[in-house]
Design a protein that fits this description.
Layout lengths: L2 H19 L5 H12 L9 H5 L4 H8 L9 H18 L4 H17 L6 E4 L2 E4 L8 H16 L1
Helix pairs in contact: 1-2, 1-6, 1-7, 2-6, 5-6
Length: 153
Protein backbone atom coordinates (compact mmCIF):
# COMPACT_ATOMS: atom_id res chain seq x y z
CA UNK A 1 0.00 0.00 0.00
CA UNK A 2 1.01 3.59 -0.45
CA UNK A 3 2.37 5.61 2.49
CA UNK A 4 -0.73 7.81 2.69
CA UNK A 5 -2.97 4.76 3.06
CA UNK A 6 -0.75 3.45 5.86
CA UNK A 7 -0.90 6.76 7.71
CA UNK A 8 -4.66 7.12 7.31
CA UNK A 9 -5.19 3.48 8.36
CA UNK A 10 -3.24 4.15 11.58
CA UNK A 11 -5.03 7.44 12.29
CA UNK A 12 -8.41 5.79 11.73
CA UNK A 13 -7.64 3.11 14.32
CA UNK A 14 -6.23 5.74 16.69
CA UNK A 15 -9.43 7.81 16.48
CA UNK A 16 -11.57 4.70 16.83
CA UNK A 17 -9.63 3.70 19.96
CA UNK A 18 -9.75 7.10 21.65
CA UNK A 19 -13.46 7.39 20.84
CA UNK A 20 -14.28 3.98 22.33
CA UNK A 21 -12.07 4.48 25.39
CA UNK A 22 -12.89 8.20 25.84
CA UNK A 23 -9.20 9.16 25.84
CA UNK A 24 -7.99 12.70 25.14
CA UNK A 25 -6.25 13.02 21.76
CA UNK A 26 -2.51 13.68 21.55
CA UNK A 27 -0.87 15.30 18.52
CA UNK A 28 2.53 13.92 19.56
CA UNK A 29 1.08 10.40 19.74
CA UNK A 30 -0.45 10.80 16.26
CA UNK A 31 2.83 12.04 14.77
CA UNK A 32 4.84 9.14 16.24
CA UNK A 33 2.07 6.69 15.29
CA UNK A 34 2.17 8.01 11.71
CA UNK A 35 5.95 7.65 11.56
CA UNK A 36 5.59 4.08 12.86
CA UNK A 37 2.99 3.45 10.16
CA UNK A 38 5.52 4.14 7.40
CA UNK A 39 8.64 2.80 9.14
CA UNK A 40 8.36 -0.85 7.96
CA UNK A 41 8.98 0.38 4.40
CA UNK A 42 12.53 1.22 5.45
CA UNK A 43 13.43 -1.95 3.54
CA UNK A 44 12.34 -0.41 0.20
CA UNK A 45 14.89 1.99 -1.37
CA UNK A 46 12.22 4.19 -2.99
CA UNK A 47 9.80 4.37 -0.08
CA UNK A 48 8.55 7.67 1.31
CA UNK A 49 10.36 7.08 4.60
CA UNK A 50 13.67 6.49 2.80
CA UNK A 51 13.33 9.49 0.50
CA UNK A 52 12.27 11.96 3.18
CA UNK A 53 13.58 10.77 6.55
CA UNK A 54 16.36 8.80 8.23
CA UNK A 55 19.23 10.53 6.41
CA UNK A 56 20.31 7.54 4.33
CA UNK A 57 20.02 4.92 7.08
CA UNK A 58 17.13 3.30 5.24
CA UNK A 59 19.08 3.10 2.00
CA UNK A 60 21.74 1.07 3.81
CA UNK A 61 19.10 -1.18 5.34
CA UNK A 62 17.37 -1.70 1.98
CA UNK A 63 20.69 -2.85 0.47
CA UNK A 64 20.86 -5.74 2.95
CA UNK A 65 17.22 -6.74 3.18
CA UNK A 66 14.33 -7.45 0.86
CA UNK A 67 11.08 -5.53 0.75
CA UNK A 68 8.45 -7.21 2.90
CA UNK A 69 11.11 -9.35 4.54
CA UNK A 70 12.42 -9.05 8.10
CA UNK A 71 11.23 -5.47 8.61
CA UNK A 72 7.71 -6.47 7.61
CA UNK A 73 7.41 -8.86 10.55
CA UNK A 74 6.78 -8.69 14.28
CA UNK A 75 10.54 -9.10 14.71
CA UNK A 76 11.20 -5.85 12.84
CA UNK A 77 8.53 -4.20 15.00
CA UNK A 78 10.23 -5.52 18.12
CA UNK A 79 13.65 -4.19 17.03
CA UNK A 80 12.33 -0.65 16.51
CA UNK A 81 10.27 -0.82 19.70
CA UNK A 82 13.37 -1.81 21.70
CA UNK A 83 15.40 0.97 20.07
CA UNK A 84 12.66 3.47 20.91
CA UNK A 85 12.69 2.27 24.53
CA UNK A 86 16.27 3.58 24.76
CA UNK A 87 14.82 7.08 24.45
CA UNK A 88 13.03 6.54 27.76
CA UNK A 89 16.36 5.98 29.42
CA UNK A 90 18.43 8.63 27.65
CA UNK A 91 16.01 11.53 27.22
CA UNK A 92 13.34 10.63 29.75
CA UNK A 93 10.28 10.37 27.51
CA UNK A 94 7.02 8.67 28.42
CA UNK A 95 6.51 4.97 27.59
CA UNK A 96 3.46 6.07 25.59
CA UNK A 97 5.67 7.26 22.70
CA UNK A 98 7.45 3.94 22.06
CA UNK A 99 3.99 2.35 22.29
CA UNK A 100 2.75 4.81 19.63
CA UNK A 101 5.63 3.79 17.35
CA UNK A 102 4.88 0.10 17.91
CA UNK A 103 1.16 0.58 17.25
CA UNK A 104 1.85 2.42 13.99
CA UNK A 105 4.31 -0.28 12.93
CA UNK A 106 1.86 -3.11 13.67
CA UNK A 107 -0.96 -1.27 11.90
CA UNK A 108 1.30 -1.04 8.83
CA UNK A 109 1.72 -4.81 8.96
CA UNK A 110 -2.04 -5.27 9.34
CA UNK A 111 -2.71 -3.03 6.33
CA UNK A 112 -0.11 -4.88 4.24
CA UNK A 113 -1.90 -8.12 5.11
CA UNK A 114 -4.71 -6.86 2.84
CA UNK A 115 -2.24 -6.46 -0.05
CA UNK A 116 -1.92 -9.09 -2.79
CA UNK A 117 1.77 -9.56 -1.94
CA UNK A 118 0.96 -9.83 1.74
CA UNK A 119 3.51 -10.22 4.51
CA UNK A 120 5.00 -12.96 6.64
CA UNK A 121 4.10 -11.90 10.17
CA UNK A 122 6.83 -14.08 11.66
CA UNK A 123 9.44 -13.32 8.97
CA UNK A 124 9.80 -16.76 7.38
CA UNK A 125 6.34 -18.09 8.30
CA UNK A 126 2.79 -16.90 8.72
CA UNK A 127 2.16 -15.48 5.22
CA UNK A 128 -1.11 -13.56 4.98
CA UNK A 129 -2.34 -11.67 1.93
CA UNK A 130 -5.49 -10.08 0.59
CA UNK A 131 -7.02 -8.69 -2.62
CA UNK A 132 -5.62 -5.12 -2.74
CA UNK A 133 -2.84 -4.23 -5.18
CA UNK A 134 -0.61 -1.25 -4.34
CA UNK A 135 -1.74 1.99 -6.04
CA UNK A 136 -4.66 0.18 -7.70
CA UNK A 137 -8.20 1.48 -8.06
CA UNK A 138 -9.16 -0.89 -5.24
CA UNK A 139 -6.61 0.80 -2.94
CA UNK A 140 -8.01 4.20 -3.93
CA UNK A 141 -11.50 3.01 -2.98
CA UNK A 142 -10.16 1.59 0.29
CA UNK A 143 -8.45 4.95 0.97
CA UNK A 144 -11.67 6.87 0.24
CA UNK A 145 -13.66 4.60 2.57
CA UNK A 146 -11.04 5.21 5.28
CA UNK A 147 -11.39 8.98 4.78
CA UNK A 148 -15.17 8.78 5.16
CA UNK A 149 -14.94 6.55 8.24
CA UNK A 150 -12.23 8.75 9.79
CA UNK A 151 -14.30 11.91 9.37
CA UNK A 152 -17.31 10.07 10.76
CA UNK A 153 -15.36 9.50 13.99
Amino acid sequence: MMFRTHILFAIFFYLLTITILSINPSITFVLILSFGAILPDIDHPKSFVNKNYLFGIGKGISMFSTHRGFFHSVFGALIFFLISLLFIYFINISIIYPIALLCGYLLHLLADSFNVSGIKWFWKIGHINGPIRTASMFEQIFFFILIVLTFYL
